[in-house]
Write a structure and sequence with these properties.
- It is a single chain.
- 59% of the residues lie in helices and 0% in strands.
- It is an all-alpha fold.
- The protein has one domain.
- The relative contact order is 0.17.
Amino acid sequence: MAENAYYTLLTSLPHIDSLFNSRITPISRFQLDKRLSMLSTADQQRLVKIESLLHWDQLDDEVEEKALIHQAERTRAELDSQALNDLIDWRLDMRTIVAALRRKHAGQPAPTEPKWSYGSRYEYIRNHWGSATLGLGSAFPWIPKVVECLRNGECIALEKILLQAVWDHLSHMAMKHSHDFEAVVIYVLRWNLVARWTAYDTEKARVRFRSLVETSLGEFRDQLPTGPEA
């Protein structure tokens, strides 16, 4: 798809002002999908795969880990954009880190499977399980805040920290992409964050938080022993 076609699409989309100050999405999903139909068939297919992989609910701890790893590897192999592959890696590394922090908070030991999660950090995390920040506090500065929220049971604050971290990462990425396919992906993922926040239900968040801190990484919940940290 030509760059001017991406420009036409992107300029037709309403600006997404902010994340937490939004009360509704700037455009309905129905209208957004109508605008996205301007993309070529190939781009539409790529966007669907990326959005399906990185959708917030798709990255829940309850997602079957092996299926997620397979989906991520397949999606990356089909993309010709290093920037988007890097985005996938970063977002899934984030998921792995948060899941590991929840495991630690629950007093569970490090997973023992050779490849227990997708990403480039799972072996490093296993080797730094004794560190409060998994040895990644500098690379991911939001980790100490997540640890504090877990310790204090602050479910809403935790969700906001994670949403903000993704928002900031997309904003940084947007500085290098304004009129290309990557910019379209950034817009859609930002839209999803706003949709997530504006649909947020406080009581459901509390229930979800309690469930998350009691669970492990998908199927590995039943494979690993419980008890004091090793």
